[in-house]
Amino acid sequence: MTGVKTGFKFVPDYSDGSIGSSLIIDSSFTNVGTVVVIQPPSSEAGSGSTGLVLENIAMSGVTTAVADTTGRSLLAASTRLDEWVLGPIYSSSAAAGARSSSPSGKIGNYRRDSALLDAQGAYYERPKPQYEDRGVGDFLHVRDFGATGDCVTDDTAAFQLAVDSSQGSILFVDAGSYILTGTVTVPAGVKMVGETWSQLVARGPAYSDESKPTPMLRVGRPGQIGNIEMQDLIFTTKGPTAGAVLVEWNMAADAKGSAALWDCHVRVGGATGTDLTPTECPALTSGIAPGCNAASLMMHIKPGASGYFENMWLWVADHIIDDPDLEDANNNMVQNSVYVARGLLVESTEPTWLYGTSSEHAVMCQYNFHNAASVFAAMIQTESPYYQPTPNPPAPFASFVGLFPGDPDYSCAASDEFSGCDESWAVVMRGCEDIVIAGAGLYSWFSIYSQDCIDGQLCQKALVLLKGNHASVRWEHLVTIGPKYMAVMDGKGIAAKDNLNVDAHPFWSQISLLDVTSDVEQNNDVLWLDPSIWDMEQPEFSCEPPCRVKIPLYTGATTTVNYPLMTVSQDAWTSTITVRPMTLPKLGFEVMTIGGSNVKRNISGLNRRAFEDFWPAPATTAAWPVVVYNGPDGKESTASPKAPYPTQPPSIEPGSPPPPWIPTRS
């Protein structure tokens, strides 16, 4: 922002009240009088005081950084501002559940995960590509491959053909609803653009078995590394598809943000043609609507995957979204009861960005970060199902709890306010590290379709479950409506009434900064070992636990790996790709966490060990390197073998077996 008197004036037009909260990050202000103006702050609950977080701010020619409406300076200008917080704070340096108030400068020792940043140290962002530099001949229509999009014809085979044939081009998904009766797999190198939110529709018996969840769209195969771009699509269902997983994301980006999705949404029910409208699935205040179990999971970002996701809404219908009367400007949006077991499950430990995402009305939880790491989630939003607690979760999926990693525990003791057995969790976060939630609006508006619970914060017991997390998990601006407890952190509740922002409807609560308690110090520095360690007869090092250690590359062995032969085809053209054997002169190792009060060995890639003697295990290689080749038209395409990459040796200790480098074909 340049050349203005006031940057942001967080003051409402009406005389009484304040703007609730604001987070300003990675920004610069030049020749600005006052960067932020707010009402005079107060630490009293319910006073309406504005919560404010400024992070990574550059200032030049600025008179005042933060002032109130009386003209009092709250923060002087400076050339560089690392962090400044105003509002309720829960710091990891304090006892779990201990609240403090601010204003305050830098909180704790938290530092950003460098894997999530750009070259300037800001959180990485990537604009939605417009392909304005591509010619008409670079675009392919999905209907040119036989797909109809008429919401009747089975388009599975035609859609798969279109996807497989579009590598190196841009696949335009013409407006329509494409019935998919089986899984469509999107390989690396695909660029897919919908026309005004073209719909991919899961239908049929392949998705009917709740005990066998089946993806409708599989983005990449497990372990695949590459790039992919998808935008302007809707993923949805038709009829009872209780076993459907709308999107399974396996792709690991071959460069920062290269596996990406923009403006794509999951919508389950609540629309014409879904057979999950108020007619088939009315809003029930008792019992369960038959035939309305619509999906097992809306989206799964799997271990080893990574991605950039922007403007993504995962929505289980609480009402009909289509207007039944196009002549009348009024749309009553009649409510309905549709059941989907889970929202978004994130298991990735590779750099992943979630910008402007939402997950609403799933039965068990909306966001589940399970043993995840290296995630930046900005502006997340949730709503609990309107029909709960009738039925209570996990109904109607009680027989299928545990099908996915990280499913909540439903050992429901009547006296346990933190069990999650009354309503869906908004966010579950367990076994995680290096995760930032930069703005969260988590709402519980109803209890059995009644809103009488809101003002008393009685709509449900708790919204966020935080348990057994590791270093550097931070929330900025957590806002809740409806629960008694905003969060449960390692068995201790954070009461909504203690953080009440406004003493009037809807009585919302706000925390400016929450550093999640962990079993190691926040952002414990990585100890980089010197390569000379491998010159020792008995390699050894020492550190004060808990410590994070980066072991240097091991150059004591050279291995040759035979790259599998690959056959690629396009129409009548077929070719076999031969790649010379790969010589691997080094073995790499992942960063390890040694020791700590809550050590668990090798949790889903986090590589945690007790403080004891050990020989390191080599880092796993997720997939074969992608090969670029020219097709019959001379255009570049990419491919990689489907065969699994050879398993690394379990250890490099003396006497360990050599790696089983067995050539394979695919």
TrEMBL record:
Q: What is this protein called?
A: LysM domain-containing protein
Pfam families given for it? Pect-lyase_RHGA_epim
Identify the domain of life.
Eukaryota
The biased composition feature labelled Pro residues covers 643-666
Task: Write out the GO MF terms.
Answer: polygalacturonase activity
Tell me the CDD domains matching this sequence: GH55_beta13glucanase-like
**UniProt cross-references to SUPFAM superfamilies, sorted A to Z:** Pectin lyase-like
